[in-house]
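Shape is hard to put into words, and the shape of a protein is harder than most. The fold becomes a row of whole numbers, each drawn from a learned catalogue of backbone shapes. The outcome of that step, for a single protein, is printed below.
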Amino acid sequence: MAKGARRIAVLGAGAWGTALANLAARGGEAAGREAPEVALYARDPAHVAEMAATGVNARRLPGVPLASNVRPTADLAATAAAEVVLAVVPTQALRGVLAELAPQLAGNPPIIVCAKGIERRTGRFVTEIVGEILPDATAAILSGPSFAQDVARGLPTAVTLAARDPVAAATLAAMMAGPTFRVYSSSDVRGVEIGGAAKNALAIASGIAAGRELGASAGAALIARGFAELVRFGRAYEAEAATLSGLSGLGDLVLTCTTALSRNYSFGLALGRGASVAEASERIGLVEGAFTCGVMLELARAAEVDMPIAAAVDAVLGGRVSIEDAIAELMARPSKPES
């Protein structure tokens, strides 16, 4: 590694982690700085061996070569000297990975969480998990309307990076930005977290509607009323209005609710076409919205926030109501002023 080059660790070699590792590896090019050294951590040694041998993450992001300064590793200790850590693991696995990493870190690098959800067991938002495991680290979150394939192909993408310290947020945003990857900074951590968590559950509803062929009008109504639920929930937890209507709120909601590239939408699509929850889960894989929906509703009820669409999704996932009855109940809700 060249003297003075930044050390970056990416925890999680899924499609998104791989795309972000490549993005981070190109950091500093425009400013003429040394290219950073990026450690891409995956738990499976066989997966790491494949990436090291072929220079491609064929399991998760086929056709996209790894940057020459991205080093796949199955040894978490190889990330210990990182100056910045990108945690790109599912929300429900975040606590375990950080707890394993914590005693190996040489200092207190910023932790940028690149997952969207709420911890099911505790009701904690992702930066709260970071704060519990690594209390001295700067906890940040990167979120917004972005698919790994788009970013990997260099298609124009814009996201938000939030940290409570606006200077830290701006510094980390500049580090992650690239010619086709625009990063806005924010100090509204909670707003960014809520946008990313809530949109996943709402995207399942949109997928169900598409699978049932309810039409474009119903799809648009679900997005609009889903956004109203997201805003009510966000306000109850002190999110800023501009964040909720920005990239990590409305922007991500629209993306996730309108394309089968979204796992949450695809999961709902399968349910709408008649698959059981188990069948849809086996077909689609990990669906963060299915984990988040119930705990989000618990937080909403604690704050006396009404989220009928999310509640309908949770009831369908729990087998407490059929899709037909859920639709009928939503349509039969008393008429009231729009808010």
